[in-house]
Amino acid sequence: MAKPDRDKGRAWQRMLSGRRLDLLNPSPLDIEIEDIAHGLARVARWNGQTTGAHAFSVAQHCLLVEQLTGKLATRASRQVRLAALLHDAPEYVVGDLISPFKAAVGIDYKDFENRLLAAIHIRFGLPATLGSETIALIKRADTISAYFEATQLAGFSASEARRYFGTPPKGLAPSKLVTLPAGEAQARYLARFQQFNK
User: Fold this and answer.
1) Judging by DSSP bridges, how do beta strands 12-14 and 20-22 pair with one another?
2) Which candidate, 116, 81, 91, places its Cα nearest to that of 36?
3) Residue 12's pLDDT is what?
4) What angle is formed at CA 47 by the lines to CA 45 and CA 49, rounded to 5 degrees?
């Protein structure tokens, strides 16, 4: 009896949409927003070490970062806001590694993540690589988001969060963060994405 083909060296992920995404050479044609929303809604921020009935998902985090980006730059273009919503999209297939682990893994991991993000950007009409000002703006929103997540959900004191994430500007605090069931986080992420495509 022949052994089943285990596809040694397989570097692709089958998505629920039926797409087969090559992780080493990702094609924009194999990327679907429904797969991204589904995956991000099921990936936990802070390795799941948050309060609440559900994990605080990467989908929720991306929604918060996009909201904060708009508050930091009230005239931010549709492209910038969409880039903020998609800033952690590669995590729909690679998961959310905490920053200390990413640093330990090294630059090769970041290069891998950036190739996937470039394909995602192209798929949704963004430049493969964003300009430095846009990158800095989204990174700032990301860091502010981490501060509020840390203090509201992940057990950090305000002084500890300030040490790692800095002091957020006044007037940017979101409403009380509440963890959502995966299906609801997915639906909210998709709904926000659709608003950019009207």
Assistant:
1) antiparallel
2) 91
3) 86
4) 90
| Tokens standing for residue 175 | 């409403």
Reduced to 3 states, what is the DSSP secondary structure of residue 57? strand
DSSP state of 12: E
The tokens describing 8, both together, are 């040694």
Coil/strand/helix, residue 14: strand
- Enter the tokens of residue 38: 């589904």
> pLDDT for 154-186, tens place per residue?
999 999 999 999 999 998 888 899 999 999 999
Tell me, what amino acid is at 170?
A: K
Calculate the CA 21 to chain-centre distance: 18
Split at pLDDT 50, 70, 90, the class of 42 is: very high
Of 141, 8, 134, nearest in space to 80 by CA: 134
Rounded to an integer, what distance in angstroms lies between the CA atom of residue 172 and that of residue 150? 15
The most distant pair of C-alpha atoms in the chain lies apart, rounded to whole Å, by 69
Whether 23 and 29 have beta carbons less than 8 Å apart is answered as no
Amino acid identity, position 110: K
Residue 25 Cα distances to 6, 38, 118, 121, angstroms: 20, 22, 11, 14
CA 148 to chain centroid, in Å, comes to: 16
In this prediction, residue 64 carries a pLDDT of 98
CA pair distance 125, 122, nearest whole angstrom: 5
Kindly state the DSSP code that residue 50 receives in the 8-state scheme: -
Please, which residues have CB within 8 angstroms of residue 27's CB and are 6 or more apart in sequence?
A: 21, 119
Q: How far is CA 42 from the centre of its chain?
A: 11
